[in-house]
Amino acid sequence: MSENISFETTIRVRYCEVDKMGVLHHSRYLAYFEIGRTEFLRTSGFSYREFEDARLYLVIVKVSCNYKYPIRYDDVVRVITTLKRMTPAKIEHTYEIWNEDKSILHAAGESTLACVDDTGTLQRIPDFLLNLSYPSPPKSGGD
Amino acid sequence: MSENISFETTIRVRYCEVDKMGVLHHSRYLAYFEIGRTEFLRTSGFSYREFEDARLYLVIVKVSCNYKYPIRYDDVVRVITTLKRMTPAKIEHTYEIWNEDKSILHAAGESTLACVDDTGTLQRIPDFLLNLSYPSPPKSGGD
Amino acid sequence: MSENISFETTIRVRYCEVDKMGVLHHSRYLAYFEIGRTEFLRTSGFSYREFEDARLYLVIVKVSCNYKYPIRYDDVVRVITTLKRMTPAKIEHTYEIWNEDKSILHAAGESTLACVDDTGTLQRIPDFLLNLSYPSPPKSGGD
Amino acid sequence: MSENISFETTIRVRYCEVDKMGVLHHSRYLAYFEIGRTEFLRTSGFSYREFEDARLYLVIVKVSCNYKYPIRYDDVVRVITTLKRMTPAKIEHTYEIWNEDKSILHAAGESTLACVDDTGTLQRIPDFLLNLSYPSPPKSGGD
């Protein structure tokens, strides 16, 4: 099991993502977290699309976010996703969103995922997912 | 076949739908058109959800929109959906979005739909859909 | 100050809001919470649009959500927003999302808001907002 | 004036952008077009954010899209934006969305933009925008 390792992905804020105040709408942060953990998984050779093709789904059970400093249109942000804990029942991630030069922490959050089949019934998280190994040094990837 | 009949639905603009200029983002108009034609279909007793449960899908083949006057956050707008033409190959709608008292035309658009199965293969539009009858006087419904 | 009073608003899930699993995307719950508290405020005669016109903004400082049971396309859900606590520094709400007949609790969440001006500087929450009075029995409103 | 030159930008489809059919929601294509033309402008040294800081805005007057082949979650697509015509009154772009190896044309569209000030009044498109020069060979850029 690979825990407490992190992955960084870079996202440029789109015009259609900002609200009337010119800042990233607070609900969008959750989509950025999702991009972070999806790209993270990809580094281990895992593709979420294939996972779904096998009719298994990772669903969000719980999420939280603290908003510290607004993110503006056209900003480039760095989403740092950390795998905190993975058991047969759940996967816990934490997230930080930093500005491009990492001088400002925009937000911090966490999520808990569980695995279900296509009837929505809770499933044990498959071994191949529990046993994935990630490249050990944090790696960067573009969106 | 019921053509050139119209249906009106009312939508209040949500905060998360407006952009930095405080107006409904232009891509959202297409979602409003979609709400319009879905609510329209519902008046005939047709539920798009049941249609999909039968593994048939109406897909957009073509869409266009003319933007005339911006729509602001919290505005209440009236989407008027008109069924222009329905053949076994396609369904054509036109749309108008008006302000609440119908003194300002915000936008006008049109769309063409086709029917596919879950492999994406084009299908004849089912007879029950071609033969739907809609309440004859234009009816209103909330979102 | 009016605390621990609740407001219920009804929302029908739009096609463009569901994801590949046919369920409301988890980030959209936060937009539903936002609709809940906006409609709630409206019952007290307060319009968030006017508030923004005065160049004051309520910003999200913290949000969390527990997802209990998926919400499908075309479902009608009831968002119950409760004002838990309001001080000159912050406003706390809790939320529950129930199915139409209130037999299933889909999700529960909470949020903390603060007030800023248009430079993003933290402001005391204005007295008129602290002193708003809401209709005492929970009231319902459509989206 | 630089017309009929093209720019290509690459986008990976996000989970939160696909609908129940597992494909990019038709309204999202318009957001992809927007990313295409924004990135295109950026190659000329123009930043839309600075433009807005000067209280000028490019608004969509008209848009259309033909959908030819669905785009799935996690697909990487290439958006090719072409500047067709630019006059003091309007800017016309065309768009094509191709799959990664450019063997499948997913969609083709066009848009017309006009320039307004922050009261929404139509403005002449500023000379500096009319006179922008773009790198002559089509260039690629990531999202």
From TrEMBL, chains A, B, C, D:
Please verify whether the record's keywords include Hydrolase: yes
An example molecular function term from Gene Ontology annotations:
fatty acyl-CoA hydrolase activity
Stretches that traverse the bilayer: none
Keyword Hydrolase (UniProt): yes
Give the top-rank taxon of the lineage listed in the UniProt record for this protein. Bacteria
Entry-linked InterPro entries: 4-hydroxybenzoyl-CoA_TE, HotDog_dom_sf, YbgC/YbaW
* Record's keyword terms, sorted: Hydrolase
Similarity field:
Belongs to the 4-hydroxybenzoyl-CoA thioesterase family.
Q: What is this protein called?
A: Acyl-CoA thioesterase
Query: Which species does the entry assign this protein to?
Result: Candidatus Auribacter fodinae
